[in-house]
Specification:
There is one protein chain. The chain is mainly beta and about 160 residues long. The longest helix has 15 residues.
């Protein structure tokens, strides 16, 4: 009887030790003012004017990047309007928009991989964006430790998502 009990216990122990591994592939996540933020949807595309757009969305919130190319390098923000980052919240009553641009905000977006075979893009980012409303209570928003990983790149688009 002891043998059956030990065998049954061993069998239960073996079958209950499973690993539920969840991969974040693709992923778009960051710390927004030191609070974890992960996009539920993400996309990337080249517009007909040659501008490359990467975006991540969580409900009413959206982070968008505008870059001049998909070249694997670091793009500095706050220098010009060619490379910029934008955060928007479109929730009624809480509408806000923060952006970088020429002499606005600071930061960087680094493209670490642009896979032309699988049509994905990966990289890192951090930026400080300025509120477009100069009289708003909150004037800056900070994003740190940002990562976008294997975001699918869509076909060339003529509509503006930025």
């Amino acid at each position: 009887m002891k043998k059956y009990f030990y065998a049954l216990t061993l069998l239960l122990l073996i079958t209950s030790c499973t690993e539920d591994v969840k991969f974040n592939n693709p992923a778009f996540q960051t710390l927004k003012d030191n609070i974890f933020w992960r996009a539920r949807s993400y996309a990337a595309e080249t517009q007909t004017n040659g501008v490359f757009i990467i975006e991540g969305t969580l409900g009413y919130e959206k982070i968008s990047f505008q870059l001049p190319s998909t070249e694997e390098k670091t793009y500095v923000l706050g220098v010009d309007d060619t490379s910029k980052a934008t955060y928007k919240n479109t929730l009624s009553g809480q509408e806000t928009e923060f952006t970088t641009g020429k002499e606005r905000g600071s930061g960087q977006i680094t493209i670490t991989e642009y896979n032309t075979v699988d049509k994905t893009i990966s990289g890192t980012f951090k930026f400080k964006a300025v509120n477009v409303k100069t009289d708003a209570e909150k004037q800056e928003i900070n994003f740190t430790e940002g990562v976008f990983y294997k975001i699918p790149v869509g076909p060339v688009s003529n509509h503006q998502i930025y």
